[in-house]
Amino acid sequence: MSHLRRAFPGRARALPSGQLSQSCSVDSEIRIWAGFSLLELLIVVAVILVIAAFAIPNLLRARISANEASAVSSLRALNEAQINYQSTYPTVGYATVLSALSGANCTPPGATGACLIDTQLASGTKSGYSFSLTGTSGTPNATYQFIASPLAPNQTGVRYFCSFADAVVRTSGATISSCTPSVSPLQ
Predict the structure, then answer these.
(1) 95 and 101 in contact (C-beta within 8 Å)?
(2) pLDDT score, position 4
(3) Cystine design at 167: which of 45, 63, 79, 109 (Cβ 3.0–4.6 Å)?
(4) Residue 86 CB: number of other CB atoms within 10 A?
């Protein structure tokens, strides 16, 4: 029974030989694994909670930052798609709806489905942001505005973004109703 002492050298308790069954013939004490005490378990749980208290806010900030970077990248892709659309379909001008920049069947692409952006972005939501295309006017359409807003402010994103025909991505901490040159450019 000395193998029990070697397997668990510091975590054992003594059991008097009188408490053994008749079939065991051991002359000395036997060491039996006693397990962790309640205090030790509470200390481990407390350490895990302290680590989680520091890690979870950083994880949420990282997710917000990733969503905002995705929104900026999506606005740049939308601007590029509008420029391509306008040069491909000059009689139409800029697209008036996001679905015109996308398309389910791209053989051949057309003014109602140019296949310039993915269908996820054309649906109007991507990576915690909603995208809207507004401000189209003229024949052919000579202007447009894209506005990207967080789906759940302070959870999926903190900043609001927009862009128009100058293709400069702009940002604001407050809701953007109209994208104008007065909205600060993204630095």
Answers:
(1) yes
(2) 46
(3) 79
(4) 18
Among 3, 50, 51, 57, which residue's Cα sits nearest to residue 31? 3
Question: In the chain, what are the domain boundaries?
Answer: 2-16+24-38, 43-172
Task: State both tokens at 21.
Answer: 């069954």
Alpha carbon separation from 110 to 114, 117, 138, 181 (Å, rounded): 5, 13, 20, 32
pLDDT digits (tens, 9 = 90+) for 58-102: 899 999 999 999 999 999 999 999 999 999 999 999 999 999 999
**Contact call for residues 169 and 185 (beta carbons, < 8 A):** yes
What sign results for the dihedral spanned by CA atoms 113, 116, 118, 120? Answer: negative
Check residues 17 and 145 and name the one with the higher pLDDT: 145
Per cent of the chain over pLDDT 90 is 68
Residue 109 preceded by cis peptide, ω within 30 = no
Residue-averaged pLDDT of the chain: 87
End-to-end CA distance of the chain, in Å? 72
Question: Rounded to an integer, what distance in angstroms lies between the CA atom of residue 157 and that of residue 88?
Answer: 34
Pair 161, 75: CB distance under 8 Å? yes
